[in-house]
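Re: the multi-chain job from yesterday

Posting the exact lines I submitted so nobody has to dig through the queue logs.
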Amino acid sequence: MKTSEEIYNILKEKFGEEVILNLNTTEPIDAIIEVNPSKINEVSKFLRDSEELKFDTLMLLSGVDDANGTKVKDENEIETIQGGTLSVYYHCHSMEIGHKVALRVATPRENPQVQTVERIWRTADWHEREAFDMFGIKFLNHHDLRRILMPDDWGERYPLRKDYVDPEYYNGIKIPY
Amino acid sequence: MAVKTEELVLNMGPQHPSTHGVLRLLVELDGELVTDVKPIIGYLHRCFEKHCEYLTYPQIIPYTDRMDYLASMYNNFGYVTAVEKLAGIQVPERVEYIRVIMGELQRVASHLVALGTYGLDIGAFTPFLFLFRDREKILDLFEMTCGARLLYNYMWIGGVSHDIPSDFVPSVKKFIKEFRPTMVELNDLLTYNKIFVERTANIGILPAETAINYGITGPNLRASGVKWDLRKNDTYSIYNKFDFEIPVGDGKLGTLGDSWDRYYVRVLEVEQSLRIIEQAIDNIPDGDVFEAVPKRIKMPKGNVYHRVENPKGELGFFIMSDGKNNPTRVKVRPPSFVNIAIFGELCRGHLVADLVAILGSLDIVLGEIDR
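And the result, structure tokens for all chains:
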């Protein structure tokens, strides 16, 4: 069983500082390792296959809107966020060894792109579709990236972003009703 | 002239009695053989996670009730323990005991629905009535305690909404005594029934490795022979005080990890839950259940991922807080959402008639898949 710090050091040795960015232990309860979004698939593969880590399950993959950009108001007083990042969090667990780890990748809000991990943990397939559906994060090389909970024709709107505004009409139905 | 061999795409649902809710299955058929199934979800989507960002921590509890509406108590349990972990709240021993008893009663109730409707899917009507009759008695116990029969809002952050009434303990004991014979009856009626076994054994085989890679949890994983239960393996609350077994599938009447195994693991789990209740019910310590309920919750900055063993699998809450009254992000890991994702894989190569048998054995609730 390894602590997040030990796992962080193992990863850093293997991948270097450009891929494994830092370890955030200051405020959260769970320590979080920050990873480069274009290398997350390689890091995940290592986490799963390495003999000393053996992270065989992905418990949860969640998109998060960091809302750390600048808030801009347009002429209709509608606030949008420009700049800043969206993140994806990965919570992994090893059934065999019993340790856990949390990873985070941050990707620019204007063009959010993250490498997919669906071939490493098949469970990520639907989780990634959900993150795409709710935040518009594009998972590169995902085999079937389409909306999952919202209707297919919802357009370029991503409900869980902090600056989301409901459309006035959806297929002729007035919302909010 | 060549025979026309087009693949047929069949729509099953969203309104279909055996899909256990509003689920649409896009089935690709080659004659009667299923070549691919795509589950299409989202018909019950109501933006639980968006709502959470506008609500205070206690206000979210009733929303968790409505996720897996057959196991509302346990959703409460998962959410409040996650918040307590983040806020660092210690709850009194009495509250822990009450929560475990309620949680296990809820597990029995949830499994009874799963077993009963599964029989119904296959065509056995009587066991369904027997099991629903006894589930009703559990709902009576809940009603007696908190007034609600389905959506309880019972567990609070730091406590529970009502202390147990004075006749609760004898009523639970009476229920367990009356209920045990039903499970014996169920085995005679359904479990070893030849027609039922023929329909379910060797159908929808799920190997352990695939299950783990797909993140399958709960009875579905245990049916594949993996001894994994969060109550024991990543223990929370006071589950380490009780003596109980983790039943796993063994391919008794077919292959390891088939639909019958998934069904039978649930049958065995009911008995284990009863054992936990029996051990807890006599040892409830005295105390005030409202003692640790904070007037105003002071949330530190940070985030937590906490998981519990819901009747259907691993229910996880990922909560991010920036120290304000409402969370910045709540993400749920609903067990059914993950469990249904493997459905296409399980059905490949089976007959259309087996679709329902496989779907029922996964025991999904759409309220929690769509949130």
